[in-house]
Amino acid sequence: MTPIVSIRNLTKTYSNGFQALKGVSLDIEEGEILALLGPNGAGKTTMISIICGIVNPSGGDVTVGGYDVIRDFRETRTLIGLVPQELTTDQFETVFNTVSFSRGLHGKKANPAYVEKILRDLSLWEKRDSMLRELSGGMKRRVLIAKALSHEPRVLFLDEPTAGVDVTLRKDMWQVVERLRESGVTIILTTHYIEEAEEIADRVGVINGGRLLLVEEKAALMKKLGRKQLILDLTEPLVALPAGLAIRGLSIGAEGNTLVYDFDAEHEHEQATIATLLRQLAAENIHFKDLSTRQSSLEDIFVQLVGEDK
What we know:
Blueprint (H helix, E strand, L loop, with lengths): L4 E9 L5 E10 L4 E5 L6 H8 L7 E6 L2 E2 L4 H7 E4 L11 H11 L6 H10 L15 H13 L5 E5 L7 H16 L3 E6 L2 H7 L2 E6 L2 E7 H8 L2 E7 L15 E4 L4 E6 L5 H15 L4 E8 L2 H12 L1
Parallel strand pairs: 3-8, 3-9, 6-7, 7-8
Antiparallel strand pairs: 1-2, 1-4, 4-5, 9-10, 11-13, 11-14, 12-13
């Protein structure tokens, strides 16, 4: 199936010589949620700005729905909705008029019924006659999403959609994003909140220093790069590991009150190693009162990848 967004060897060098993007290639499938993770200055916003026609690339090609973003600007802009980081809205206009006006800017005929549907989907209908200056930050961000959806785009870019939003509203926004995907909209979001990607993304991309380090299905990424820890709570603290406990990945933690064994759950021999570890503990007269396991999170993996890239 042809990807809805296709990026090939995309580069961007600004006039001061800064290379924001260094040969990025990426295909985005229709109907998926792709989360782009990366530190400040990694190139996330520059890449989105190029796809949306706001910034010109220095090299490479980008197509949306089969149209070139430079040659076929009008066609691609019609297909794309963008929710920027900044809360840029007309503070003295009503919610309904703001969204309706945005639809008109994209050359779409007035459709009050469609605007009503968007506002209801985003829990904004009760605020339709409110001026934007009267809304909370979370509600204003929902209005930005409504504006981006007003012209019925097939692709929606969310650039830090929950920045400055409290935890409760952030989870509400995740539900909004999921409903949008169910309606057939392809969603690409950049985020600093790794739990956001872990919660709602189908695939995760990690970008750093203008280079795309990887793009992979979230579950596959967790399986391939994620590790587990076996944590043993000791009945008596240890100062040092006995010579007989020469097992790679084993260490003392929490002021000697725990033993921590890092292992890869996908390797078949790990189960045998754990059994050997427990036998050796008994032989060394080291006893534990409890044991638990911990799976690496997406944040652990992100930190690892970005750290390796430095």
